[in-house]
Amino acid sequence: MDVGELLNYQPDRGAKHITEELAGDKKKILEKLMDQDEEEPEAEPVDESSMKKMILTFEKRSYKNQELRIKFPDNPEKFMESELDLNDIIQEMHVIATMPDLYHLLVELNAVHSLLGLLTVVDLLQELTDIDTLHESEEGAEVLIDALLEGQVVALLVQNMERLDEQVKEEADGIYNTLAIIENMAEFRPGLCAEAAQQGLMQWLLKRIKAKMPFDANKLYCSEILAILLQNNDNTRELLGEMDGIDVLLQQLSVFKRHNPSTAEEQEMMENLFDALCSCLMLPSNRDRFLRGEGLQLMNLMLREKKMSRTSALKVLDHGMIGPEGADNCHKFVDILGLRTIFPLFMKTPKKMKKTGTSEKEHEEHVCSIIASMLRNLKSQQRSRLLNKFTENDCEKVDRLMELHFKYLEAVQQADKRIEGEKHEMVRRGEILDDSMEDEFYLRRLDAGLFVLQLICYIMVEISNSGISQLQQRVHQILNLRGGSVKVVRHIMREYAESIGDGKSDEFKEAERKRIMDLVDNF
């Protein structure tokens, strides 16, 4: 860490006017530091008592430095030497990061409090919270994280970042290291995400993401931390919504409507922002913000532009339209002529998806899910427009639907065969097939294509019950022609109805199951 950084570590009280003469002094001191580095002897092994000594020395030097800074705020020469002494001991303390089982000493000797007061120690904190080190000694890590949280570490880190100027390389690195501390802590203890977001982190991240600055590693890291904060957390999703974060995400993503990201890093940032948006849409109140922010129009344009963003835009639409909370978005999607965009993607899976790392199955799953959501949610004129699509061009959409039905049915039957074989083996070995094994097998079947197959069968029974006889006839005609069976479709739909509505109220589950079973009985 250079002395320039140290001199500026409290810009609000630190020196503003350093004379040229002082710059010369700094140069001399830096040279001295360089010489010291070259002469440094082998470090002694660290044990509990030498660690205590080191921490107490740090406390003393930190106190002395604070005292001199308060006494001579405009005269850096007076506290220069104490600054260097403090820097030396902070450098020595990096060795603590190799001994997580002694972290409790940092807490017992109240050093965490002093460290938080001196945010030049960002890179030391980053080493202390390195995720691999934390896992080496869970106990030491717990104690350290508790003390950091008690000291409102996130609020302090955010305040510190607000003071830093990213035009200066050292300060930009300071921001990167700060984000690393937050990521390490969040990975070790996911529960702290909501608290961190509340302590000013969410606001800072949104501000940094929308700042008019060229793309860099810090912007990428911000997008990553944002996506982590929003994972499985309704509190942070609500907070982002209240801070107009949906608009920020949509504005940032709109760049990729007509242009592909220019580097792999920029592509990663784009995907992080899409992931963040999908997470947010799990919360019903954000669906409305997405609708008002014209999110549907942006996603629809992305689907038409055929750029890299297309794959993720499809995923966002799926998240925005699913379930009863997606009804308004479904109607709006039809109003903005979204059917003209989605059906070509249903009829033909794009070849160019390899670039974005999306599988054919993922694409077909999102498209079928969007169509199923519309069939579930659309009323009156919009519903008629959707059903008319299936009758166009001699029912070509029904033919494609049935083609997908047999494709996924075969994939699921093969997976079922493998699983049956495994079950047979387990029984032969005298192993017990408990509920958790059964759940695991069910997840494997979903993954093999059962989920897409359920969506396809749902679309089949919905259009067969639409009152348009030509659709029902076509579905049954192709089933008979290819040796399919109504019984298989019914069985798949029963299984689907059983698994429906996780996290929803009991009455919703009941009503939805009944609705699906009525469709099945009339199929």
Automatic annotation (TrEMBL):
Alphabetical keyword list: Coiled coil, Nucleus, Phosphoprotein, Repeat
Subcellular location(s) of the protein: Nucleus
Chief place of localization: nucleus
Domain called Beta-catenin-like protein 1 N-terminal: residue spans: 22-122
Pfam families on file: CTNNBL
Annotated InterPro entries: ARM-like, ARM-type_fold, CTNNBL1, CTNNBL1_N
Keyword Repeat assigned: yes
GO cellular component, one term: spliceosomal complex
Protein name: Catenin, beta like 1
